[in-house]
Amino acid sequence: MKNFIRIFLEGTITNIKRILFASDRVTDMELRSKILGGRIVPTEKVAEVSCIGCGGCANACPTKAITMVKLPEPIKLMEGLVKDQIPQLDSFKCVNCYYCHDFCPLYALFGEAGTIHPNDVGIVESDISQLLKQPVKISDDKIAFISQYLSDSAILKKRKE
Ligand code: SF4
Ligand code: SF4
Q1: What is the pLDDT along the chain (161 residues), one digit of tens a residue?
Q2: Nearest Cα residue to atom 1 of ligand 2
Q3: If you take atom 7 of ligand 1, which residue's CA is the nearest one?
């Protein structure tokens, strides 16, 4: 009985933290509040230059508002990494949940402004080849969680079954 009460309380506390502090998200509250308050100047819907084309945003989007479109010419970002697609956002399907932003590895792993967001996060000027060489800034657990969304969408479909 004691164990049951402990598990119940832990679950309740975790859920309260999720609701109040968005504790399972990467995007910090300050950035969220800026986005929601319209204090970030909207720019292009997708910062094409910084995007590495991983497809994580499209996989993470619950409303399928993001489609990955093939580039006419693949771009070599660094040794072993070629970008051949970029996300296209359908604003009508977007429900502003910020999952795309949270799961974009540029933001999630390196703490740089994310490259896709319904309201955008301002101009992104990262040097991608340098950024990818940097150590990541999040825990191994979080990486494992986020990496599920960066994988192939067929794998994701299987995971849901
Ligand atoms: S914010 Fe919009 S585009 Fe991004 S994951 Fe949510 S619904 Fe999809
Ligand atoms: S998650 Fe970020 S880097 Fe990956 S395709 Fe989407 S915008 Fe580009």
Answers
A1: 666 666 666 666 666 666 666 666 666 777 778 777 777 665 556 777 788 889 988 998 989 989 999 999 999 888 888 999 989 888 788 887 888 888 888 877 777 766 777 666 555 666 777 877 888 777 888 777 777 777 666 545 554 55
A2: 104
A3: 94
| Alpha-carbon span 104 to 139, nearest angstrom | 16
Answer yes or no: is 95 within a domain: yes
Residue span of the structural domain in which 49 resides: 26-160
* 13 belongs to a structural domain: no
In a domain, 129, yes or no: yes
Task: Say which ligand is closest to the CA of 117.
Answer: 1
47 located within any domain: yes
Residue 120 and residue 39 in contact, taking contact as beta carbons nearer than 8 Å: no
Distance between CA atoms of residues 25 and 45, nearest Å: 21
Ligand 1 pocket: which of 45, 95, 102, 153 to mutate (most atoms <8 Å of CB)?
95
Separation of CA 32 and ligand 1 centre (Å): 13
**Structural domain total, the chain:** 1
